[in-house]
Structure formats: structure tokens, C-alpha cells
Transcription termination factor 3, mitochondrial
Amino acid sequence: MFCSAIRNILRNSQNAAFTSQIRNLRGEQSTKHEISVLASPSTSIKADDKKKEPAEHEGSNKVALDFGNREAHVPSFNLAAYVNNSSTLQQLISLGVDLHSIERRKGLGDFVLKLDFEKNVKPFITFLVDQGISPDDFGRMFTKNPLLFKEDLDDLQTRVDYLKSKRFSAEARQRIFTHNPYWLMFSTRRVDRRLGYFQKEFKLSGHDLRLLATREPNAITYNMEHLRKSVFTLKEEMGFNAKELSALVVRKPRLLMISPDDLVERFSYVHQDMGLPHTQIVQCPELLASREFRLRERHEFLKLLGRAQYDPQKDLYISPKTIVEGNNFYFIRNVAKSDLETFDLFLKTR
């Protein structure tokens, strides 16, 4: 049996590695008494305060409407202590709102506590229902962006009408608002500039632009400096031409939100170690969206089994896309055609 032979090889390799580790450990113990460790005094570093920049500034170093820096804030009060006496908080909880997540962001806990459900919340629920948003999505939307309750309803309707004028379908608008609640806080002028940037930069048709925005609504409102760095990385450092870049971002717009350094690392492994050309990577952009260690782990296992064959013109072809699909059990059974025991032994001897 082929898998049995592989397991025997792996076990022998594992035993040899273990013996080597024992020898090294004995050597360390024999010289341990000759080594003295000096503990260096700890040093505390105080970070400089960062000045806030205008939200409308396109070149901002911060992600638009990003509250990530506030997550470390320790709340001065606990919203749970007010629930019994606040019908608004009770109603928000019934909608699925995570009060603990809100109170961890500076100022939002106090803001939510002062809301009146009938005056400040219910009108927005009615508005969202009119847009076809499912009540099941309210909790996640309000948890992520409770500042939506500060917006003017007429402005929100104007922003919805703008998307209608750009031929975004009702289903597309619903997906945009539920996956990126911050979108509704962007003025129509600002959204128009963002959509214009994507259309011009990637030479997209109206259909492809709508497809990109619907697949990854967060990309449209993402930090512009980061987006420009990602585009530079894909074009100049990875060598994708204009046509390939356009197809790549439409199929997987989330790539633009990944750290450029991570993109380069993944591309280097896929292109050089796995031997995939640019055209094949464009067809399987999921490869660049997967972590490098996962790609390496699965490719090396297929290589061990003699199944790392990604040329569709040859026998035993394996689609590169299947390498990053599913969990390990799915990969082992359906792609590698092996078993868990062999895969576990492989991981232990890497």
C-alpha cells in the first residue's frame, strides 16, 4: 500500500529526529552549569499620541470610520448594569446587539445609553426594513456601527437613491449595507469618488464595478493609502499586467485589503515554489487570499505523495483552487486522496 509505505518513511524520519533531539538535550544539560543568564531590566515605552485627521480626507492613514484603535479601551462603566432600568438597552439586546462590544469602544457606550428607542432607533429600523434588510441582520449592523443612529434619515435615503441611479439592484444594496454598515455614513460625493477611483484604476465596466462593490463592500470604503500600496504591489512587485489585475480584483477584491507584505510572500511561494504562472494565479485568486503556511503545508504533502501536478494539460491534474478549499479532512480525502494518519505523521516530521 502506497500510504503505508509513506507512513513507514515518516515514522523512521520521526524516530531519527527524536534521537537527534535527545542527543542535543544531553549536550545542553552537560554544559548548563557553565551558563549564567543575566536578566535585563524591563523598559516601558510610552506611545506618542496621534492627532485625529478629518474623516473626509482621502489620504488619511486611518481606515475610514475605523474603530480598531478603540478596542483596547477599558470602559468606565458596564452597560449590563443599566439594562434592567433601560427599555432601549433591552430592545437592542432583543435585536441581537452585542452591548459588550459597543462599550469597549470609547464614547459609544455613553452614546447608546442616551438613546431613546422610539425616537432614535425605531425610525432607522423602519428605514432598513424598507430597504429589504432582514431583521436577523440588525444586531450585527448596530453592533458594528451604532453611530448610524446619528445620521439624518433624509441623507440615508439620498445615499440609497444614489446606488439606485448607478443600477445597483435591491439585492446588491442589501448585501452592501449588511456587510458594510459604514457605507451608509459616506456622503454620495465621497462614494462617487471611491467608485470612480476603482473604475479608472482597473478600467472596469459598470457591470464589473458593481460586481466588485457587491462582492466586497468594505473595499470601497477602505483606507485609500493602503489601497494604493496594494495596487502598486500587484502591478510593480508581482508583475500583473492591466488586464490580469482587473480580472484579479473583480474575482477577489479582498486581496486589496490584505497587507502588501503578506501578498508578496504568498505570491512568491505560489509563483516560484509551486510554479504557477500569472495567468493561472488570476484564475485562482484564492491562492493569494490564503495564508502562506497553509499553502506550503498542503503543497508539500501533495509533493510527498507525488500528486503536486498543477498543469491541466497533463495527467493527474489537481486544480490549484482545491488546495485552499475546505478543512484538512476535506483536503486529505478529496484532494490528496490520502488519510489523516499519514497527514498527521507528515506534519510531525516537517
Remarks:
- The chain is about 60% helix and 0% strand.
